[in-house]
Amino acid sequence: MSYSLNVCHLYGDLMNTYGDLGNILVLKYLANKMGVELTSEVVSLDQPFDPAKYDIVVFGGGQDFEQSIISKDIQSKKQALVDFIEDNGSVVAICGGYQLLGHYYIGANGEKLMGIGALDHYTDKQKDHRFIGNVVIENEETGEKYHGFENHQGITFLGQGERPLGKVLEGHGNNGQDKTEGAIYKNVYCTYFHGPILARNNDIAKHVLMNALKRKYPDADLTPEADLKVGATF
Amino acid sequence: MSLKSSIATAAGKSSYWFLHTFFKGGSSLPGKITKRLDPEILATLGRDYDVIVITGTNGKTLTTALTVQVLKEKYDNILTNPTGSNMEQGIITTFLHAPKSKGKRPLAVLEVDEANVIMVTKYIKPKAFVFTNIFRDQMDRYGEIYTTYNKILNGVALAPNATIIANGDAPIFHSKQLPNPIVYYGFDNQKDGDIKATPNTDGVLCPQCQHVLHYHFISYSNLGKYFCPNCGFERPELNFALNTINELTPKSSTFEIDGEPITINIGGVYNIYNALAAYSVGRFMGVSPAQVKKAFEKGKRIFGRQEEINVDGKLVTLILVKNPVGLNQVIDMISTDKDPFTFIGLLNANYADGIDTSWIWDGDFERLPKMNIKQFITGGERYKDITYRLQVAGIDPKKHLVEPDLDKVVEMIPKAPTKKVYILATYTAMLHLRKVFAAKGFIKGGMD
């Protein structure tokens, strides 16, 4: 049997600052190796998000200006996104996308901008300072190590039901205080790693694909797909 | 000149002579010394010049070179700064180094880093500014495009009488009301349609109503004849327009501006914009269209971020890449080559390259498998990233060689299966290659 997955590139025309498109390219590349057909489409301003249509949502990072516009628009998609997440839909959310899945974030000018509260975190901001540089974290459940690059002024604090994507070994992570980086909730992976996190960390890409396949084809034997070997690309 | 300025100038000049004579360099230190002795030295040095400031993310260097070439048709005495000397100290050094001017008021055509525009306008009121474009560029250093534009405007605010000569196809240059007179140049070479930019383009929100902009046509990235279907915001009237593109090759472009057929000896659509900017400055300064055409066609090869090197009989084109839009323009340019070639991609991630390599994923490498490329080589300190990028783009693994060591990459060039070789390299990788090429006698000297 041949499998297919459909990706929603949420605000892909606006939240794409740091090679975020790489995630879609890598999902396609690895899916193709598994023999899975993967398609993607952009859902943006003034367009509804239909949770039944998609298996994976990729929500990238953007510039402050674009993100403030999306903070307003995404409220109209809030319920649909919450439903998708609660129904174990797979999500990869980066920087701004990560912040907007939480309750709120404080923008560069100090204004409070609303997220959708699908996850229980919130984001404050550092005063005149950004965390910039390479990051290495360890997923404490799997032992996998992830490499990335962070560049963010926001500091995020995790809430109920969330666990970090990993423990910070190098760099700053969510807030530079509690050694956490990113968040995992159900099948949602959030991170401050820039842009192409999946390109540099094929392990996460594989988890996302497998979670999506298991959800869409609950009775299928996915052993061959799970056997795909992925290596480090950093 | 005040005593303080005289002393500062003398100190700067002698340090320039010293550095130039004994160390074959010194583009910013004399400026630094002079500035230390007289913080306002630029006011003194620039007082007698009509200054044109050229700024923006991409195309500063080539636009500056072309503008000088064009203005030479009418003006004898033109001062300009060498590549890389586009910050305050480098600009002071440029003035220090200027030959004594006789007779007519001289011109200074200066490439200025976006954040340094204000350092110049604090002391000098330019006659004109040229805005080439603003794209995301090594954001670990520069920040977002709106921040960059504001930095430029902070500088422009100190010179409200200067004419702005701006790329009219860039929506960002039409986003704010400014007191300055503005002249727009742009492309008018395609029929009107209704399209949107590809998803991976930045700066596509309407500055008036924040809906996604549409385009009648796009030349590249977010540049084109834009309009907002929601509020009616649209591209301004163009004062100078490109009407037709006749032929594009990697080494030349033939096109028509305001009906005048022109050829420039450098490839790439982005360089047509640079030529159009230079044309517009020329016209603004009273150079006739025929004189501009003559200036462009004088036959002198012009090099922006690319140069040609003969390596043991191979025709190597070395091209600097530093941000996604520039990279995509280079990919577009090499796609116009009719001959088969070898593609070499070299990625470093030092400070000068940008320490975040994420941007390679915004490059449209997916076009490479469709080109007539016989061999791919990837290398540099971050060879794993660029290697994987090309794998995902779908290039044939049988044609792909990986060599992290740049010295060894140079040794592979004579063995390439094609006569033509394109090397796309980030800044420090390019410097490294040039050093090796120089040591082997393929090129003379280093870069300014």
Word description of this protein:
The complex is a heterodimer of chains A (234) and B (448). Chain A is an alpha/beta fold and 234 residues long. Chain A has a single domain, classed as Class I glutamine amidotransferase (GATase) domain (Rossmann fold), CATH 3.40.50.880. Helix content of chain A is 26%, strand content 29%. Chain A is built from seven helices and 14 strands. In chain A, the strands form four sheets. Chain A has a six-stranded mixed sheet with strand order 2-1-3-4-14-13. In chain A, strands 9-8-11-12 form a four-stranded antiparallel sheet, with no helix packed on it. In chain A, helix 1 links the parallel strand 1 and strand 2. In chain A, helix 1 packs across helix 6. The longest helix of chain A has 15 residues. The radius of gyration of chain A is 16 Å and the shape is globular. The N and C termini of chain A lie far apart (34 Å). The mean pLDDT of chain A is 94. By secondary structure, chain B is an alpha/beta fold. Chain B has two domains: 187 residues, Mur-like, catalytic domain (UDP-N-acetylmuramoyl-L-alanine:D-glutamate ligase), CATH 3.40.1190; 134 residues, Alpha-Beta Complex (Protein-Tyrosine Phosphatase, Chain A). Chain B has 14 helices and 17 strands. In chain B, the strands form three sheets. Chain B has a nine-stranded mixed sheet with strand order 2-3-1-4-5-6-9-10-11, with helices on both faces. In chain B, strand 9 and strand 10 form a beta hairpin. The two termini of chain B are 30 Å apart. The chains are: A alpha/beta (234), B alpha/beta (448). At the A-B interface, helix 1, helix 2 and strand 8 of A face helix 12 of B.
